[in-house]
Structures are given as C-alpha cells and as structure tokens.
Amino acid sequence: MSLNNIFAISGSAMSAQTIRLNTVASNIANVDSVASSVDETYRARKPVFAEMMEESMRERGWRDVSDDDLQSGVGVQVAGIVESDAPLQPRYEPDHPMSNEEGYVFYPNVNPVEEMADMMSASRSFQTNVEVMNSAKSMMQKMLSLGQS
Amino acid sequence: MAITFQQAFAGHDETLKFRSARASVLANNIANADTPHYKARDITFDSMLQSEVKCLDLAGNDDQHIDGSSTFGSDDALLYRNPSQPSLDGNTVDMQREQAEFAQNTLQFDTSFLFLDRKVSGMRKALTGGQ
C-alpha cells in the first residue's frame, strides 16, 4: 500500500526541515560570536538537501518502502551541512577584549535577514508536510472503514 | 448470474491503488520542495494504463520473434512536470500546484472510496435481503 510511504516521505521532510531550523537557530544565536582570528570565527551553516532514493532508504535500515516499481523518490535527506564561504566582517574595535594586535575583531558572516527568511520557509514547509501526513492518515482511516456503513 | 468482486467493484479498487500511488508521488514532490535540482514528477492515469499495456506480452515460439514489451521502459509511468517558471536552483516544484493536485487527488480518492463503499453495502443488502 503506497499510502504507507507518505508517512516515511513526509517524516523525512519534517526531519530535514527541523535540521534546517536548527542551523538557522545556531546561526542567529551566533550572530555576535566574535573571534580574534579568521580561523576561529563562526561561519554560517546551511544544510544541503538531496532527494532520497529507495536504495539510500534501504541503506538506512528501511525495508520495502514501496511495493510498486515506479522508481519514485522516497523523501528528502540532508546530504551534509556546509559552512558559508562569504567573507567575514572584520571590525576595528581596539577596546574589545577579543581584538587582535591590530585592534580588529572578526564577526561571523551570518546575514540575519537571510536567516529569518530561511526560518519562515522552513516552518512553512514543515506545516505543509504535516498537512500531507494528516491527509494520508484520513485516507487510511477511511480504508479501514470500508464496508462498515 | 454470477457476481464477482472484480465485476462489482468496476475498477474502483484499482483506482484507489492509483490514487494512493499518486498521493505518494505528490507527497515526495512536496517533501523535496527545497531540494536543489529536484524535478517534480507525477503519474497520470494514461501512463499507468501504458505500463499495464506493456504487461500484455506477445506470445513467441521462436528466437526471432520480437518481444512486444521491449519498447517500453521500466519507469514509463513516472513523468516529469513541465515547470511553469524557472528557478535559480533548478528545482521545478511549484508548491501551490502540488498542494492543489494533492487536495484534488485526495478528493478523487474519497470519491472512488465512496463508490466502493456503496458497492459493498449494495452487495450486503442483496445477500441479506435488505434486513
């Protein structure tokens, strides 16, 4: 029954969007995490989404996720989390306790506006997937009541 | 007159199978709405019919007979959507469209289910004499 797939598909999307929300939270929380050198400074993190195919699902311990040979994808996965290469913001603050010899501190390359937009997109996608799951649930409940009326 | 389930259900059981398969394809589109380079997919009743037709193999008793099913691929049933507008990351999922299709598909599922349910209750009525 393909309806069982929907729970796995929407569930994978919800977990992926949660990871996205987590990275957004981490980025916003660290927006003022200064450091005295380029290497130590926090960099904005972004998850990379990739379509989950049946094989990768099986590798993760799922079995018989679909019984039709449609070769369809079975959800979304987070392929990895990358750090942004955008330039850091050096600021001349000689009085700052973290400033280096030249009086500079480095601020992370987090763009708060971008992060807020990302956060809204992630929470909307999460909601949509919850609704999809709800629809699938009511479809399955209907199937159980076949012939009872 | 012999009544079989196959005849009585008039294909609505197959329709339910198709509707639930389509629901999972659409759910996968919605799940991958933020995946770069993901191409939205869909199945149509026609493409499902095509993949059923390919199952009707021609009988062959000679090596030189051409296999009737060889012209169809294995994933003919799954098609790609024509994107309505380009996006920077190559993703072709139109969220509104997918949600509308999903809602419509759910309603069509409910319709087929209602037909099936009425068929079953009709059969029960015939068996019990309406008691």
- Count up the domains of chain B: 1
Structural class of chain A: alpha+beta
Work out the strand percent of chain B.
under 5%
Q: Assembly type of the shown chains?
A: heterodimer
Calculate Rg of chain B over CA atoms.
20 Å
Shape of chain B: flat
From the N-terminal CA to the C-terminal CA of chain B, the straight-line distance is 22 Å
Biggest beta sheet summary of chain B: 2 strands, antiparallel
Largest interface: A-B, 40 and 36 residues
Q: Which outline of chain A best applies?
A: elongated
Q: What's the total number of strands of chain A?
A: 4
Task: Tell me the helix content of chain B.
Answer: 40-55%
Summary, kept brief:
The complex is a heterodimer of chains A (149) and B (131). Chain A is α+β, with helices and mostly antiparallel strands and 149 residues long. Chain A has helices at residues 3-29, 54-59, 112-144; strands at 45-51, 76-83, 89-92, 104-107.
Please supply descriptive tags for the structure shown above.
heterodimer, A: 149 residues, alpha+beta, two-stranded antiparallel ribbon, two-stranded antiparallel sheet, 3 helices, elongated, B: 131 residues, mainly alpha, 4 helices, 2 strands, 5% strand, flat, cell projection (chain A), Flg_bb/hook_C_dom (chain A), Flagellar basal-body rod protein FlgC (chain A)
Report on the structure:
The complex is a heterodimer of chains A (149) and B (131). Helix content of chain A is 44%, strand content 15%. The longest helix of chain A is centred in the C-terminal third of the chain and has 33 residues. Chain A is α+β, with helices and mostly antiparallel strands and 149 residues long. Chain A has a domain of 97 residues. In chain A, the strands form 2 sheets. A two-stranded antiparallel ribbon of chain A has the order 1-2. About 5% of the residues of chain B have low confidence. Chain B is flat, with a radius of gyration of 20 Å. In chain B, strands 1-2 form a two-stranded antiparallel sheet. Chain B has one domain. At the A-B interface, helix 1, strand 1 and helix 3 of A face helix 2 and helix 4 of B.
